[in-house]
Each structure stands twice: as structure tokens, then as C-alpha cells.
Queue: 3 jobs
Job 1
Amino acid sequence: MMSWAASPQRKGKEAANAAMDAALSVNERILRDIAACYAEPGAGETAEPQLDPAALQPGKDKLMAICSKLGLSCIAPRRKINVMIVGNHSAGKSSYINWYCCEHVQTTAVAIETSGFSFCTSGKKRETLRGKATLQLFEHLRHDLKGFFPAIYPGLSTEVSTSKERCFNLVTFIDTPGLVDGSFHYPFPVEDIIVAMARHTDLIYVLFDPIGQALCDRTMNVIERLNEQHATKMRYFLSKADTVPLERDRQKVIVQITQNLSSRIRNKHAFELPSLYIPDKSSTGSRYEGDMGRYGEISLYISRTSPRWAAPPTPPTGPNPRWIRYSGGMGLG
């Protein structure tokens, strides 16, 4: 009888695995191998295992099983960097995602377009997933979101893009609902869900636009709650800087946002608020060309979060390069 080791089925599986490995980039293989240290492939990389400590075998167990044995809570790293973007309504969150992956995956408009949580990730084919299908793809969120079922189902969606621009094949963006005050009603507790999802993110971008600034109470409440537990993950930006008519006005906006944030967050000694805009959407050309010298910093945060040998994004060339522009931030003290 032919053994499994020499069977055609195993040889075919090994050939398929080799072909799949060849299709992955070096960074993708690194993240896959790191994730494999925590749980067996295909055994549910997200949930903490429910094991009998007496059945565990030292030397053979993965890190998740070891933590279970020791009674420790452990979150296995994903195979991609998770970046959550938070901000006021019309702060440019969806526009940044479209710019990053060079594809129109998120709807942008002056009206409130993102009323739910939209996951943007890279895949083999372009497709859109809704509701429970999103939770099947991001199984690790089920435990923290189960308290919001079933109200959260209509508010979950996933946009899968085939883009390989910049580091998008290593990133999953979480586009959160635009936050507004007043009588606007969300069908789910949006603030609590943002805080729950933050536990599974690697970076949290907070975007302030020159109009809304840091004046929305709901946005500031979310920032304060996130800062209590995830201060090291958070990065703050002034978006749509090209809509400010004068440099003097832009500096005033930065000062006002900084003053409002100073009473809410604790990392005051290392705080920065870079300004950004997308050049080909600017109606004023290169007005800030002289002082916006930190190109691509917001993208470099992602590159530095991925494996340290990952190549940083390279500014595209051509007559109309899609590259984001910055100016200096202002500290809190």
C-alpha cells in the first residue's frame, strides 16, 4: 500500500503550496510566518483556544495555547497591518484610502457617505462583502462585537481591491462612520464599537478638517476613550489643508485644534499635528509647496509598523503624481 508521504495527493498539495508561496511577496511571507507562531494554520487564527491545561504539550504548543495554559489573554497578530481611521464627517477619511490604494473603493462626497464600518483590504479579485460575510472574513472581531449583534450587521461591509500600490497588500483599512453631533441617529452605538475595534488595530489615524476641527463632542469623546488605552497607536492630522486660504489661517486652525486636544489626551510631550492634502484635488495648486516637506509621512507610519525591512513607499513619477503633501505639526508644550 502506498504511504501518504509518497501519494500523488500529498505531492499535489506540496506543489500547490509552493506555487502559493512563490506568489507572495517577502513581507507577506514574513507576516504569515509570524501569525503561524501563534496558532496552527487553518485552526482559527483569531479566537483564543479553549484547551484543557492538562492536555497541553510543552515544546509543541503554539503561543496562543501557551497563553491559555498560563491563564493569559493574548491577541494573535494578523497577517496584515490594521489601520483604523477616525474623524468628523467629511474629514477626508475615505479620500485618503482611495489615494493610498490608487483605486476608488470608497464613496466620497460632502454628504455623509460612510454610515457604517467599511473594511478595505487587498485580495485576488474585486468584490464587496456585507454584514455577516465581513465577520467571517475578520473572525477575530466576533468576540468583541458580539454584544452589538444584530444591530451592527447592516453597518459592516468589506471592499476587496486587487491594488498592489504602496504597501496596500500588507494593510487593512477600517473606515469608520463620520462623527457628527446633534440629532443624527446611528443604528448602533458607534463610539463603543470604535473603542472595541481599536483593540485589534495597529495604528489609529485621527483626521481633523479645517471646518469641523476638534469641535465635535462625539469625536472628542471617542478620542479621549481611545487615548486612555491606545495612546501609542494614535496619529493626528489636519486634513484638507489646501482649503485654508492663507498660511496664517492654517496656523490658527492648528493652534485651535491643539488647544482643544490638550484637555483630552495625555501624550502631550510628543504630540504632532502635520497638515496634509492630495495635490491633484487641490484647487490652489502648490500654494504650500515651500513648507510641506514631509512627503508620504502618513504612509511611512504604515511601513514602519510592517516588518522593519519592508521598503518604504516610493513617490510616483509623471506629470501629475498622486502624492500627499505635508507641513510641520505643532506641539502641545
Job 2
Amino acid sequence: MERRYKISIIRENTNGVKRNGSWNGIIGTLQREEADLGLSPFAISLERYEAIEFCGSITGDSTGILVKYPEPIVSSTSAIEVFSIGVWIGWIISAAAVVGISVILSHISKKFKVEADERGVVSHESFAWYLYGVLISQGSYLPSCPWPLKLLAATWCIVAFVFVNIYNSTLTSYMSVTYQRPLINSFSDLAASSTFKATVLTGSIQDIDLLGSNSGVLKILADKIQKCSPDCRRFNLNEMFALVLGEEPYVSIVPWTVGIAALKKHNLEREKCRLAMAHETMSWKPMFMGVPKTSPYIEEINRESLWFIDTALFDYLHAQYLKKPSQCRLNYNAKGVSTKTFKNRVILKQFYLPFLILFCGYFLAFLQFLREKVCFLIGWRC
């Protein structure tokens, strides 16, 4: 059976905004019965439900933040960032404790004459130097000492072996991976930022949620958007995307599917990563088709939407159109940081800290040399 239909583009580029008691956009067109079906999926709100009928659940959508693609993070302190500060502090304390215990054991051995000669006394400088040599896998000479000190040194060697090998293997992978995190990666980041502005599509469910918020992060964002209106409340998605791509610090609060469409368009057209979706999403809502309250097609649309799901067309839609494109994808971890294999060579900036430590070592050695010469000239014992 042949069916004829006409697709019209409404004058206002919005789902619908209620002003002075009347709706514009798609909702206004359906309410005036100038169309039989709104092709744009809607999320339900009380005001919308009072104006039109919702039927035919086809998908669901979340709210996300469209941001500029983040630059790779290259750290000049990557040589020590392999482990956390707590791990390094723990190792320093452990080394100091081992040296202290060795000195105590050595003096106890001497006092109670556990050893027959003075070889039982090991200075803390000698033992500390031995531990350092083991830690950097260079080895060192340990003077003859009693068995308690030998056991203590053996234990340190085993633990240092594990620590050093973990550090070496992790350092290689750490310096061959780039870390990326957008400056605005959550709604809390956006609310706390005094620099970034957020845009929202007028009449969208995101706009409605923000206007209806009474507290918390959404209320802060709603106030910020209200202050910068009309720059922040737009009627055109392309204008919102252009602001994010521009020089000024803008982000866009958009439905997840809209954000994915923007990624596919702007990241592929120039073969350069330009846009990304922030890590945090919120406010997942089911989406429905909109029809007039008096529509005779409600039952038919509901039946066809169930058929759409039962025949796995919904899964096909999600796999083909609602997933992030593989190009420029940021695979976030639990902390909102994306990691990616670094194809370029390791750069000099990553070795700034080791070179700084090397320079400090040279400088201290030079100062010690001067100190010894001065002491020799004036006849002091240094």
C-alpha cells in the first residue's frame, strides 16, 4: 500500500519553548495539530506532557559535555610519577629505619661482646652506602658484620630487587603512553570554573533541567548560563559547536547522541582531533516520539516501536550511530584520565627532573671538593 507523507522543517530550530502560555518549535506545531508526528525524539517533562502526547519509546539518552579535544599531558617529573608520593616517602622512611636498626644492632653487639673484635661495629654511613648501591643495582662492599646485620641486609636486597624491577618496567610503559584529560571533565569542574562558559540548546531537556534546578551543581550552572544569555542559550547546534571550537573557553551541555554526531562530523572532516566528550554524564532519560493529543496513530506507533526493539534494530542503531567513533576516542579510566600509546619518541622534557638531580649532584660534589681544599689549607680537620 502506498503511503504519502510530507516532511517539513519548522521555522524555530528547537523542540519547543513555552512563552506567554504558548509553545513554539516542534511541540507548538504538534499542539496546533499542524503535523501528525514529531521526528525528533523527546524526553518527558510535565509541561511537555500537558501539551502533547508521548508514544513509541525508541531509545534513551544522557546529558554530556562537549569539550575541545585535550592536548597530551607531558610531565617533566615523569621519572618519579611512576609511584605515588606515599610510596616514595615510605621507601625513604624504610631506608632510614633499616640504617638506624643496623647501627643499633652493631652497637649492641659491641657492648655485649657478641663479636670478638671491632668488626661488629658498622658505621651508619657504610651501611647506608651499601643500601644505596643495592637499590641502584650496582652493589657495594659490606664490611664484616654480625649475623643480625647480614639478615637485615639480605631482607633489604630482596625487597629492593622487587621494587627496582617494578620501577624499571613501569617507567618504560609510563613514558611511552600519553595522558589526556579535558580541562572540564565533569559538571562539578564546570560549576567551579570561573573561565569556561557553557552553552545549552534552548528548549532542550537539558535547558529544562537547568531552569528547574533549585540547588547543587545544576543550580550554579543555570545561574551562570542565565548571566551570559543570549550567548549561552542558543537555537542552533552548529553555533554551539562553533563556540566550542573557537578561541574562547566554551563547552556545550548537549544530549549524548548530539555530542557523538558532533564528534563524527568535526573530527573526521579535517582528519584532526578537535572535539571530545567529557568523562561525566548524567540524567539518563527515555526518549519518545511526540504526537498531538488527538492523534489516531498512538496505538500504531507504540506497536511499531516495540517491533523496532524486538527485531534488534535498536541494537543496530546503537552500534552504528550512538557509539563514539574510533578516531579520537578518549577511553577514560575511573579517574577520568584517558591513556593512549605514544607513537612519538620520548622527548627531552620528560628527563628534566633526572638532569636536575644530576646537576645537583655535580654541584654538591664541587662544594665538597672546595670544602676539603679549604680545610687542608687552613689546617682544619673536616
Job 3
Amino acid sequence: MAEGLREAEEAIGVIFNPAIALATRTAAQSKCDSIKEAPNALAFVCQLFEGSSVAEVRFWCLQTIEELLNHKYEILQEAERSGLRHWLTSLACQATSVIRGQVFLQNKLAQVYAILIRHEYPEQWQAPLTSLLCNLQNGEDVITMFLRILRAVDAEIINPECHRSPADSAVAMRVKDALREQCMGEIASSWYVILHEFHVTNPSLVKECLVSMAAFINWIDVQLVLNDKFVPAFYSLLDQDAFVQEVATCLTESVLKKMEPRPKISLIRNLIHQPTLEAGLSRRTKGRTCSPGDDMSDLVALATLTSAVCRELLVSADKLKNENP
């Protein structure tokens, strides 16, 4: 086995090296393809991942697991599936230091984690996210993986843009219903803790948290994030240039939630602090001329939020008018 692992590592190194002759790379690719087709492919690549310190090798291993889940999940034995659940959870919760600072590996791990959730949650895999929640106290590496996994769950399962069939929509509904019932409240609580604890010491972690929140806001219970804790936190962060885009996106997603007109108007009245938005827009436009290369992202995010507020108020007003002509 050790010899096979060494040969596999060498072959992967070759296929990632464009400077090596094409014939050699083709032979190495054949070697890698034979690994993927082997009956013990899953166990082999997990062992290879753990035994290698080469980032490209680890990426290839995760990519191979992704392919197995997408194309051969049905033929995996239950022992293999169970082992993979344990391995991914352990990697995300306890071995995150091995991929620290390697965003492409973190994203690929999160994607694989989400794909297994798509197949198995909640019937076969009851605790993919609660296991992460229980380990957030282990440090910022685990928190980073937790947030990336939430984003991957949205990208791979929930976001309508990834739905290619009615079956995909059914899977998304199954996962959302399970999350609502099992742990959405805990996830929201963890978001607040991250915003509160790290906005000074780790702004990038807070930005990651806000991005994950924005992906979930449009379908979770409105009271989980639009309450006396979160709304002041949003506006406190909105005063800081580092978080304007992400906070504005969260507020925009909140304003766009599908609701009846009266609750929608009430939500906007309670959520939107007009003087703060006006001050933010004014500060970014006063005396400013647009030049090629200017970063207008903050201004665009605030303008998008303002536009959404106006549009939703107008639509709600029209609906009320039609109800009472």
C-alpha cells in the first residue's frame, strides 16, 4: 500500500506540472484514472490525502471523492459511506490546520461535505451541521470551515440556480425542512456570536459570516436574524467600511423576502434606518467623480439596498390598493 501511495502521489504531481512532456503526463493521467476506477478508490484517496503534505495531491483526492459521490454514490457500500461521514466530519472539525490558509482546499472540502449532505441528510446523516456547531469552540479554523460549508450547502443544494430538475428542487426542500426543524436557530445564534466576537480581531471571518447569512436569509424564519440582537449589529457593522457590501447584501435579502404586503411594510419600517442609509450614500457620493478603476462596490451595494426598499414598498402599496379599491 505504501508503494502504491507513493506512486499515486508522483503521478498526481506529474499531471499538475505543465512543464513535463505530454507523453509522460498522459501516462500519469492513466495511472490516476485507474485509481479512480479501483474498487477501493474511496479508502485509497482518503489515505492518500492524510499521508500527503502536497496541496495538489490533497486537492486531487477531494476532487476524486467529489466525482465518486456524483457518479458512483449508489454503488458505495454502507460501510464506505459511514466511513466517509466520519472522515469528513473529523477533517472539518479537528484537522482543519492541515488546510489552513489554503482556500482552494477549504472550498473543495466544503463542496464535498455539501454533496454528501445532498445525498444523505437527514435520513442517513443526521448531524452534519450540528457536529460542526458543537466544535466551533475549537477555534477560527473550524469556524471558517463551518461558514464555507454553509455557503457550499447553498451553492450545491439550496440555490435555485443549481436546480436542473424537479428532483433537485425536492432535495433542496428536504434539506431546508430538516435544517429548520433541527438546527437553524443554533446556526443563527452562531452567526451572532461570530459577528460579535470577531468584528475587531478577524474582519475576514465576519465578512465570511455575513456572506453565508445572506445566502440563507431569504428562506429562514425572519425572526432568526431580524430581531433586537441582529439589527443593531448590522447597523454597527454598516458604519465600518470593511463590512458595507456584506451588510447591505444581508439587508437587501431581508427586504426581498416574500411576504404579504402589510407584514412586508412593517418589516421594512422596523429594519431600515433611513438616516443611516442616507448618510452612507452621501458620504460615498459627495464630491466624488467616477473614474475608470474606481471601486464603487460599497456605493453599488447601498444603492441596491435603497432600490430594493423603494421597489418593495411600491409593490406592497399597489397590492394594498388593489385589495381596497
